[in-house]
Amino acid sequence: MIDNMRGNILYLVVPCYNEEEIIEKSIDKLKEKMNRLIKEKKISPKSKVMFVNDGSRDNTLSMLHKAAKEDAMISVLGFSTNFGHQSAILAGMMYSKDYADMVVTIDADLQQDIEALDDFIACYYKGSEVVYGVRNDRSADSFFKKSTATMYYKLLHFLGCDIITNHADYRLMSKKALNALSEYKEVNLFMRGLVPTMGFPSDVVYFDVKEREAGSSKYTLKKMMTLAVDGVTSLSIKPLRMIMALGMLACVFALGMLVFIFVDWIHGNTVPGYATTIMAPLIMEGVTLICLGIIGEYIGKIYLESKARPRYIIDTFVWKENEEE
Hints:
The protein is built from 10 helices and 8 strands. By secondary structure, the protein is of the alpha/beta class.
């Protein structure tokens, strides 16, 4: 039942990029779920599903516009070009916060179990400002994706990042939390690490991942690698400190080599070894290049932030009053 002490308007934010093969199924399933929640009086009839078109090159946008024309529950936010998954999530939340009391972000392929919405809402009514959706397991992933994801989360924890393992971008945020999030102005977005830094009361809901019913994932290896780098460099400066430690180790190694060569000279071994001649410069050059690469990544982030370009540009916005209000 609706808790009268808290607002009850729910908006689902659904980022979309070239999803024409599955978007109609997603619309039908989300509408059905929302209507059930309304019928069970868990959310307000004013609740909506807001699709964010992230510059799709197929028919996704036209299909969304058609759905919005037929049903006031559907709202559409369209980017002028592809700005990325994280920007699409942020834009949907920022536009929704003016109408909604709580916002849930979910992917268009609905691999994230929509039945978990009941638990999200229950946690919200109990006082949680943020509710994180966490996968029960990664059995649906390939061995490569599963192993790299596990290593990545361990790396983030090692670097001191406040992040929840196996949480993607399936989460609920209250209006209070969204208003706080709007104060964050950085261009390089990593929502999974950014939201926990706000410190609001939170809870976790576990869910099962389903097989994708149609189409293929638009999250390519390149996009996953970019997100991974953004996660590290947006949340931690520990790699910079590690560079200093690495440099000190390199200096100790070089000093040790100098002592070794001097001892050799005392014993009359004046012919330098091939391995020493070749390996020492290679090691030093490798360490130098790694250090420059890490520093360059941070400088690149500073460069992007200093330009203060918009994180997204809205081309279309379709929103109308629900007919049953």
